[in-house]
Amino acid sequence: MENSGNRIAVLVDGDNAQAKLLKPILEEVSKYGKVTVRRIYGDWTTNSMNSWKEVLNNLSFTPIQKFSYTSGKNSTDGALIIDAMDILHSKMVDGFCIVSSDSDYTGLAKRIREEGIFVMGIGEKKTPNAFVQSCEIFTYCENILQDEADNAEEKPVVKDERTKRTYIKVNKELIDKAYGISETEDSGVYVSKLGSDLRKIDPSFDPRAHGFYSLTKLIESLPEYEVVRNEGSGLNHPVVRKKVNKQTEVNKGEKASTGRKRPARKKPAGEEKKA
After folding, report:
1. How many CA atoms lie within 13 A of 91 on its CB side?
2. Model confidence pLDDT, tens digit, residues 55-90
3. Which of 3, 12, 81, 161 would bridge with 40, disulfide CB 3.0–4.6 Å?
4. Which long-range contacts (CB under 8 A, 24 or more apart) does 180-188 make?
5. Neighbour tally for 133: CB within 10 Å
6. Phi/psi class of residue 173: alpha, beta or left (left: φ > 0; alpha: ψ in -120 to 50)?
7. What pairing do the DSSP bridges indicate for beta strands 7-13 and 34-42?
């Protein structure tokens, strides 16, 4: 759902999110549409919410006050869920972004998807898989933090700082599966379509987790695939194709030639008369 015209509601669980990531989170959500509803939920009478107060006004978020009725527990999740359902039924938006690492929002994400509405989640890697899989797209805060670090640091002159970081190994089976779903008639598949199908299989898939800024760069690093620049009308729509093994093509050609039936030899006219 990468459409700048879509309206998205960003609902933040202030008890289970980081204030320093609010601006990068908005930038992340902006890839999928325009953020029209911005709300942060929490008990604003507690010291734990102080870190949100400065960014709150700067980024035009509305604070929603919810008191903790029981010691050790908060009522933030209940308030966020109720508001989300009200927004859903009012048809105010085309999609939701739930910012939390709490599994309590699993049911909410499922309910929104049942309505055919886009729902994404943003949380830490400790987020339970049930919540991750209930979203169409789930972005880990660690990937956003890494992205911010890459943008902030100066480009190295000789030494590549990336070698100091540990990235997740690319799951080639996942790439192959998504490519198989996306490909039509051996003509390859658009990178954007491949990315969409990868997220359908694994909502948390993110090239940044593997050390690549974009999916195109990740695919280019795989020896089994190639990226073809497909430019037209001033736009670039790269296409992914599987590299063809020349020996495999030769074997296929030999197999096809041996498998053909030879046409029956016609008897000469004289032989037919003798018979």
Report:
1. 0
2. 988 999 999 998 776 555 557 888 999 999 999 999
3. 12
4. 187/239, 188/228, 188/239, 188/240, 188/241, 188/242
5. 15
6. alpha
7. parallel
Distance between the two ends of the chain, CA-based, in angstroms?
Answer: 75
The CB-side HSE value for 35 (13 A sphere, CA atoms) comes to 22
Token representation of residue 189: 């598949």
- For the chain, what percent of residues have pLDDT higher than 90? 41
| Concatenated DSSP letters of 52-82 | HHHHHHHTTPEEEE---SSTT---HHHHHHH
Residues 6+ apart with CB under 8 A from 261: none
Q: What is the Cα gyration radius of the chain?
A: 27
3-state secondary structure of 271: helix
Using a 10 angstrom Cβ sphere, with 0-12 exposed, 13-18 middle and 19 or more buried, the burial of residue 149 is exposed
pTM for the model stands at 0.76
Contact 119, 98 (CB under 8 A): yes
